[in-house]
């Protein structure tokens, strides 16, 4: 029984994530990982993170994170910088263009998220399940 519940939760999560990815690409031409990267960097005091920390936040491998950062570099939103104390360490740094872009894209993302969640949770049972999950995550 518990495995079935887990399967349903993951299916719901991936369904939401896929819908959100499609909406986000249409509205802001960003993928979900790119958006999350810019948003997370914009919340850092120095607008930067070590690549390893970024990979952990995104829950991606180092190589997948590097590809995300490369796409953002091509768009002129970020740059990579060497760590002063460890030349092998690299930082991903949000620049002014990226900061401005994410400030404009965040409300679009919020609208997309609300549309997708409202569509997903339009049934009473789905709303109740979402509330129950919120309670579990706060425990």
TrEMBL record:
It comes from the Bacteria. InterPro entries: HTH_MarR-typ (IPR000835), MarR/SlyA-like (IPR039422), WH-like_DNA-bd_sf (IPR036388), WH_DNA-bd_sf (IPR036390). Residues 1-139 form the HTH marR-type domain. Pfam families: MarR. This is MarR family transcriptional regulator.
């Amino acid at each position: 029984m518990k495995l079935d519940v887990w399967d349903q939760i993951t299916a719901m999560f991936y369904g939401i994530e896929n819908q959100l990815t499609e909406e986000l690409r249409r509205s802001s031409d960003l993928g979900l990982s790119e958006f999350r990267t810019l948003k997370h960097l914009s919340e850092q005091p120095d607008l930067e993170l070590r690549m390893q920390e970024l990979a952990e936040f995104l829950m991606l491998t180092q190589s997948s994170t590097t590809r995300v950062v490369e796409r953002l570099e091509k768009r002129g939103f970020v740059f990579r910088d060497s760590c002063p104390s460890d030349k092998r360490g690299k930082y991903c740094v949000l620049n002014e263009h990226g900061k401005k872009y994410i400030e404009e894209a965040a409300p679009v993302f919020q609208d997309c998220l609300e549309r997708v969640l409202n569509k997903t949770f339009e049934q009473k049972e789905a709303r109740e399940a979402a509330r129950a999950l919120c309670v579990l995550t706060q425990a």
